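Fill-in record for Methionine synthase.
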Amino acid sequence: MPEKRPDFRFMATGIGSVPFLDVGATCREIAEMVPFMPFWPQFVKRSHLEDMSIQYSEGLPLLEIKAEERSLIIPGSNQRETELVKFYELYLAHEVERFAMSREYAPGFYSMLELLADGEVECGPFIKGQIVGPLTFTAGIKDPEGKPILHDQELSEAMTRGLAIKALWQVRKLEGSGKRPVIFLDEPYLSGFGSAFSPIQRHEVVDMLRIVIDYLRENADVLIGIHCCGNTDWSMVLEAGPDIINFDAFEYMDHFLLYEDDIVRLIEGGGAIAWGIVPTSGFRGDESVDDLFLRLEKGLKRINQWGVDADLIAQRSILTPACGMGTMTPDAAWAAMGLLSRLCRRCRE
């Protein structure tokens, strides 16, 4: 954990994906609605290049984009060894700029940074970015035989280290805004971990997450979160050592609160909880700030009953949507963002 413990006190931010198409206007609205910790948006309906995995594929070895399927594959090739050697030469030489995201793949990233640099909106003290987590990334890429490369140790380790240096590039650009960077590893693959359908061991999950987290900590002053919007083994996720845990507090509050010892250790050790309290996939449109406040309050009171000081819980709490908003309609997404913004003000009062 960083030496300086930030006081979040119910600051609000977003997960990443949005259903909008106007890049500049969206960034401005985000900066105005969640000014304490604006996030750069992923315009998933604008282009397949902004798919949560494709967006971070530039510069990584052996990958081929299948545009119609919005997916990545490893095509059959005799260049595997050559490509991996070339990748590791750049990685070990810390050639961070070789792993940049281009504007074509991430216009929201560039637009948000330009907006903050212009000083037209007052924001701070944090700025949030995101990157696909290594489990989700490698589980979604098929090798020439059609198998996920998550189970190919050589390829999965290379891709994990590739994501780590790409995350470092992003963090260094975010630092240039003058705000303290926060970056979330988005890991929807971990939903349902531990079920009969989960073909990976706990220690493998922790090891892959730690490769990215440790690399970032060694090379930047950054706060690192892990986002998972479904049920998972939160003790396993916390074992990887993130600063922030982000979960769907609207649907899975009771499940998350089963991990009493781990949650107390996180908060008292300087970590934070990002409560995904505004529903996304289940958004109806009749939710109110009062309803969400009462739902959140139940979780806060439970942790307080465990002996954690109420003011410390407030300092260590961030508010977010339950998940990305890319699958919502634009009207519903703006309504959800409005709820989030008003809930932030209500809690901070």
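KEY FINDING: The domain at 11-348 is CATH 3.20.20.210 (TIM Barrel).
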